[in-house]
Amino acid sequence: MPFLYTFLSVLLLLPCTFAYKMVLFVPNMANSQVIFNSRVAETLAKAGHDVTMVMISAMDDFDSGDVKIMKEVKGMYNTQVVK
Q1: Residue 8 forms part of a structural domain
Q2: pTM of the entire structure?
Q3: 72: domain range?
């Protein structure tokens, strides 16, 4: 009987485990940090999750345009620098 309750509980919880919406806050100070976090975001997107990367830039003139990010990963850029 306990096996039946466990089995039914797993069947009820199964639809809740498919995909999530995730946000990655990425410090945009060096390309290595952006590359690492983009790989994490791409892996999560390939697994079926909805991933958004928020790039937080501490410098006005930093350019991370040479880093390629999959089209499945959404990107948001915060370029406001607090002085």
Answers
A1: no
A2: 0.63
A3: 19-78
